[in-house]
Amino acid sequence: MGFFDRLSQVWKGFLSLWISDIENRNPEAVYEAAIEERIHKHRDLKKAVSGIVYLRNKLQAELDQKERELAEVQLQIPIAVEEGEDEAALVLIEKKHELDAAIEGLVLELEKVSGQAEEAKSGLLQFQSEIEKLKREKISMLAKKQNADARIKIQDSLDGLSTDADIKALENVRETINKRAAEADVTGELKGESLDAKLDKIKAKTANAAARAQLAEMKKQMAAKRATEAAAGVKKTM
Questions:
Q1: Helix orientation angle between 86-159 and 27-82, rounded to the nearest 10 degrees
Q2: Who's near 194: CB < 8 A, 6+ residues apart?
Q3: Residues 231 and 137 both lie in one domain
Q4: Closest among 181, 1, 150 to 10, alpha carbons compared
Q5: Per-residue pLDDT tens digits for 69-94
Q6: Helix (H, G, I), strand (E, B) or coil at 1
Q7: Is 66 in a helix, a strand, or coil?
Q8: CB within 8 Å of 138: residues ≥ 6 apart
């Protein structure tokens, strides 16, 4: 296969895919085209059937005419014989034979054509029934497609609103809360490292040391007082 043949095959493939995509996106047009095509074929078939019916009717008319002529000849033959018209009688007898043969041929042909006409009419009626069936199918399938499209659209809307939106909202809230907590931690850490905080710690330690010194002084004074009182008591006893 040459280059141009392969290119032609590739082009046909793309064209087929393109047509299939159009058909999938517009099923109503596909049904309309199929119905219209069958209607045209029905018209052609109807013309063919009408030709067969016309031939049948023509054969039937010829048969009727031949049978009328045969009936007349059969009436004329005895009269010619009685009148002694032998030559006329012979002609009439030959004509009768010709009519008998023609009638026999017409009967066979008429039976054949009549059968074809009945078969063609049956096919025509069946074809018409297929067209009506396709029209009903079109209505049913398009309604089914619309229903499916509506359900898919609703489901997509529900899916988008339920899972994705909720998860995103929760993530945003969690992130906001964690950021606020981090800000609070940073503020506390910075506060502990500030100069004021250090001075406050020193003041607290200084106040504690002064209190301890005062307590020690008070304990010392109380101990001296007890010692003095004990000494005074010993002197009185002596």
A1: 170
A2: none
A3: no
A4: 1
A5: 999 999 998 998 888 888 988 998 99
A6: coil
A7: helix
A8: 28, 31, 32, 35
C-alpha 83/C-alpha 86 separation (Å) is 8
The answer to whether the beta carbons of residues 59 and 106 sit under 8 Å apart is: yes
Task: State the Cα–Cα distance between residues 143 and 149, nearest whole angstrom.
Answer: 10
pLDDT tens digit sequence for 160-181: 555 566 677 777 777 878 777 7
Rounded Cα–Cα distance for residues 134 and 42 (Å): 14
Write out the two tokens for 147: 């229903």
CA angle 115, 116, 121 (to 5 degrees): 100
pTM above 0.85, yes or no: no
Q: Which two tokens stand for residue 87?
A: 């030559």
Please tell me the distance from the alpha carbon of residue 110 to that of residue 53, in angstroms, as a whole number: 11
Domain that holds residue 126: 3-159
Whether residues 22 and 80 share a domain: the answer is yes
C-beta of residue 103 within 8 angstroms of C-beta of residue 62: no
Which pair of tokens denotes residue 121? 């009419």
147 and 218 in a common domain: no
